[in-house]
Recover the amino acids of this structure.
C-alpha cells in the first residue's frame, strides 16, 4: 500500500459525490477535504525534520514541542516554552489544518507554511539555532544527506529545502471526517439536537462572520475587542507589527475552530482557559451579546463536533548523528 493511500484514505464514494454536487454550499462552513497533490518522499523527510530536536540549539526542542500532534497540534500552554525555559510571547496556534490559513502566525507575517517553518528555528527565544547551523547539522548526518538527495533529486542541503520539506509534511495534517462534516455531507443523524441548536445560535449571533469556510476561521484578520476593549497584559500588537499601520493594531488572524476542544487555552494570549470562557468573552467583546449558560453549553456542544480524525502515522526513526555533527548546547 503506498504512503498516500495508507495515511490519507479517500472519502467514501457517496461523500465525493456530495462534495462534487455542492450540496453543502448553502452553509457558510464547508467540509475539510483530504489532502491532495503531495510528494510522499518529501513528506517523509519533512516528518523527520518536524520531530527532530537537533534543529534546536539545546537539542531538546522540535517543531512538535510547541505543535504537539498528540495534543491537537498545540502545547496547551498559555504561551510556549522556548530555549532556556524562556517564556514565549504568544499562544502557539495549532498546526492542524494550517495549510488552510490565509497566512501563518497570529499577525500573518509569514505568507505560507514554508515561510513559517524557518522562523522558530532561528528565533533566539524558541529553538535558538541559526539557519546556517541547522544546515551544518543536517549535512553532517549521512542519513539526511541521502534523504535530501532522494527528495530533491540533487546534492545539497539548504534552509529552503529544509523548510520546504517541513511544509510538505504539515500540508498532510488535515483533520477530515468531523461529525459536523458528516452532517454537512448528508448524515443528519450525526448531530444531536443540542449541537444543532448550538450551530443555529452560532450562525444567528454573527459568529459565522469571522468563523467560516473549511477551517471555520483562518481566512481573515479581525480586531480583538470589537464591541468592547479586550484587556490583556500581553504585548502583542497584532497585524500592526507587520504593516506598521496604527489602524491594524490588535488585528489578529481569526483562529481556526477545527479541533478547538483540543487547542486550549484560547486567544493570542492564552487567557481563556476553557471553551466556555472563550465563548462568553467572544460573545461580549465581539458581538455585544451575553450568552446564557444554556446558550454557552449549546455553542460549546456544536464546537466539539468540529473535531476531526487526528493524524495517525508511525513515529519517524531519526538518522543518527555522526562524529562531525555539532553538539547541542542545552545550557548556553
Amino acid at each position: 500500500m503506498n504512503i498516500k493511500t495508507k495515511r490519507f484514505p479517500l472519502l467514501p464514494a457517496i461523500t465525493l459525490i456530495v462534495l462534487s454536487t455542492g450540496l453543502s454550499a448553502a452553509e457558510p462552513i464547508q467540509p475539510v477535504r483530504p489532502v491532495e497533490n503531495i510528494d510522499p518522499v518529501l513528506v517523509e523527510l519533512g516528518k523527520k525534520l518536524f520531530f527532530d530536536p537537533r534543529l534546536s540549539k539545546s537539542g531538546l526542542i522540535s517543531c512538535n514541542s510547541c505543535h504537539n500532534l498528540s495534543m491537537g497540534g498545540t502545547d496547551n500552554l498559555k504561551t510556549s516554552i522556548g530555549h532556556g525555559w524562556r517564556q514565549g510571547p504568544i499562544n502557539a496556534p495549532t498546526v492542524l489544518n494550517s495549510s488552510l490559513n490565509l497566512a501563518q502566525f497570529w499577525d500573518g507575517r509569514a505568507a505560507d507554511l514554508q515561510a513559517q517553518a524557518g522562523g522558530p528555528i532561528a528565533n533566539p527565544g524558541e529553538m535558538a539555532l541559526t539557519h546556517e547551523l541547522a544546515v551544518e547539522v543536517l549535512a553532517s548526518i549521512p542519513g539526511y544527506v541521502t534523504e535530501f538527495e532522494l527528495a530533491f533529486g540533487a546534492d545539497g542541503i539548504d534552509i529552503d529545502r529544509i523548510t520546504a520539506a517541513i511544509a510538505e509534511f504539515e500540508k498532510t495534517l488535515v483533520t477530515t471526517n468531523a461529525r459536523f462534516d458528516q452532517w454537512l455531507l448528508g448524515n443528519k443523524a450525526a448531530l444531536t439536537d443540542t449541537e444543532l441548536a448550538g450551530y443555529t445560535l452560532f450562525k444567528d449571533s454573527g459568529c459565522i462572520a469571522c468563523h467560516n469556510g473549511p477551517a471555520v476561521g483562518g481566512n481573515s484578520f479581525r480586531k480583538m475587542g470589537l464591541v468592547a476593549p479586550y484587556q490583556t497584559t500581553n504585548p502583542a500588537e497584532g497585524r500592526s507589527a507587520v504593516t506598521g499601520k496604527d489602524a491594524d493594531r490588535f488585528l489578529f488572524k481569526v483562529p481556526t475552530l477545527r479541533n478547538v476542544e483540543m487547542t486550549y487555552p484560547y486567544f493570542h494570549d492564552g487567557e481563556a482557559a476553557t471553551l466556555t470562557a472563550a465563548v462568553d468573552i467572544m460573545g461580549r467583546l465581539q458581538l455585544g451579546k451575553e450568552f446564557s449558560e444554556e446558550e454557552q453549553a449549546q455553542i460549546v456542544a456544536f464546537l466539539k463536533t468540529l473535531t476531526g480524525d487526528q493524524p495517525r502515522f508511525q513515529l519517524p526513526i531519526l538518522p543518527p548523528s555522526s562524529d562531525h555533527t555539532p553538539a547541542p548546547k542545552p545550557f548556553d
In short: Residues 140 and 323 are 8 Å apart (CA to CA). Residues 179-304 form a domain with the Cytochrome Bc1 Complex; Chain D, domain 2 fold (CATH 1.10.760.10). The beta strands are 81-82, 86-87, 221-223, 251-253.
